[in-house]
Amino acid sequence: MGNFLEAPYLLEAVVVVLGLALLMLEAFLPKADKRLVAYIALFGLAGVLVASFNMKAPENLEHSFWSFYATDNLAFFYKNIAVLATMLVIVMAIEYTPVLEKYVSQGSKQGGLGEFFCLPVFVCAGLMWMASAKEFITIFVSLETVTISFYVLVAYMRRNVGSLEAGVKYLILGALSTGFFVYGVTWVFGLTGETHLEKIGIALQGLEGSDSAVLFAFTLILVGLGFKVAAVPFHVWVPDVYQGAPTPVTAFLSVGSKAAGFIVATRILQPFLEMERLHSSFTTILVIVTGATILFGNFAAIPQTNFKRLLAYSSISHAGFLLLALTCTPDQFQLTPGQVVAFYLATYLLMTMLCFLVLTIVRRSTESDEIAAFSGLHRRSPFLAFALLIGVISLAGVPLTAGFLGKFFVFTLAIDSGRWILLAFAVVGAASGFYYYLKVARAMYWEEPTELAAIEISPLARLALLLLIIATIVFGVYPAPILGLLTN
Amino acid sequence: MVTLNAYLLVSGLLFAIGFAGVLLRRNIIIIFMCLELMLSASNLSLVAFSRFNTVNGLPNYNGQILVFFIIAVAAAEVAVGLAIIVALFRARRTTHVEDMNSMKG
């Protein structure tokens, strides 16, 4: 069995206990500054992150529990992404406290604020469990842990109409996607009699007749996952929810929810794509969705004037690039599609969090998410402007940033598997990306500011920004540490 | 004896009615009820599959376990969902989807 303290599932258990302890702390210390809860959460999650590198996969995989629980590199990698994203979101939430106080508090100044710092911890536990889930029941429950916590977080600012509307839209469309996903799972269970992905893969190989039933189940599951990763045509909720939700939650949705969707997609699509008889049908469906996502996400982003909406469409277009990697079947490239997706998501985490952290700070001082609010930012705070510049050029994919390498691996993979049409779409999409991302840079450096007051940055946020900038540039030049974690 | 096909037909109908309701109805509470109907459709066909696809003469209990999880998750979803809808009603005095139009673009 190995050492009990090295069992990987302890990580999730610790995160859940941390969340419960924080809720208790919040309940029994009504007078304390609620940000104390956030600092303890940060501290605890940092501990979990360090501990995750000491965890070992069990030697004896025969024990029945381990058939439900993946302990490969990919699982640990996604666990690290989840913890890092949660920590950055909590840093953002601390910065966002004044806005929350305005729309949430009742009774005392910080009344009802504490849960905003506790809920991300539970989301984190769900994301981490999902990274290891290899079985439909586990996948379903962890997916819903994450989604239901997000319903609360999106609608958290209960005196802000935008946040409530976003919450209701996310609720309806999230529940709809759950309905499709579950119905798809039902049909897979009906066809194969299994809920375990590996056994489903074996059962699908030997399946006779009823192609249409398999295609039906596959499509239903794809619809459910499409909602989670924001693929066209299941993206309708994204712009409104991103715009209405509190900014830290938007950042969490864009990184956490997407990472969760893609680890599940990587694991679920595999048994289907291995089914030779229907391989081409499955790939065709995926290719159509991918092409539509890349084109729509990039072109719809061009006319946006609200930075949060712009990032929402950018999130859709990145989902397109990630899906492109999943459609590939490489024969020479040394990384598998799953590894390329994981690498891309790691770089996406860095640059998206950078943008949202700057947005949170600017939002607090200007009360606006419009791109116009960033006019002349370099005169008000050169550091923030530089941080956002690094963020957007990395999102656009300028060489020597982490975002470039992510796109580079996806494109190499596409060339290697001969997806020429999608590649053309992706090139057009990436090119139009330069236009709308650099629009933000132009506003910051070439337009006159409407006010000149300097923007304050707390030491914690400054540290987080600095680390993200350094990581974005370093991993853009030297990606070996991330690749090392993936390939070992 | 009732066949598997009959169960699947009813389940498919439930799913279709639920989905149509989500698309066509305008009241958020009713939309929410239709979403629950879609989950019930899954539950019905899961139990049917589990009963008819026997393993060693016993029903395949994996499906029935999944049903319990779906019921539990659906209950949690309803609790959170209704709370959000009530909060929205307090702020906007409406539960109609046409009124959800403060964001555009």
Give your account of this protein's structure.
The complex is a heterodimer of chains A (488) and B (105). Chain A has helices at residues 9-28, 35-52, 73-104, 114-132, 136-154, 161-192, 197-205, 211-229, 237-244, 247-273, 279-301, 307-327, 337-366, 377-380, 382-396, 402-416, 420-446, 459-477, 480-487. Chain A has 488 residues and is an all-alpha fold. Chain A has 19 helices and no strands. Chain B has 105 residues and is mainly alpha-helical. Chain B has a single domain, classed as Helix Hairpins, CATH 1.10.287.3510. Helices cover 74% and strands 0% of the residues of chain B. The mean pLDDT of chain B is 92. At the A-B interface, helix 5, helix 6 and helix 9 of A face helix 1, helix 2 and helix 3 of B.
What can be said about this structure in brief?
By secondary structure, chain A is an all-alpha fold. In chain A, 75% of the residues lie in helices and 0% in strands.
List the helices and strands and how they pair.
The complex is a heterodimer of chains A (488) and B (105).
Chain A: H1 9-28, H2 35-52, H3 73-104, H4 114-132, H5 136-154, H6 161-192, H7 197-205, H8 211-229, H9 237-244, H10 247-273, H11 279-301, H12 307-327, H13 337-366, H14 377-380, H15 382-396, H16 402-416, H17 420-446, H18 459-477, H19 480-487
Chain B: H1 4-24, H2 28-52, H3 61-92
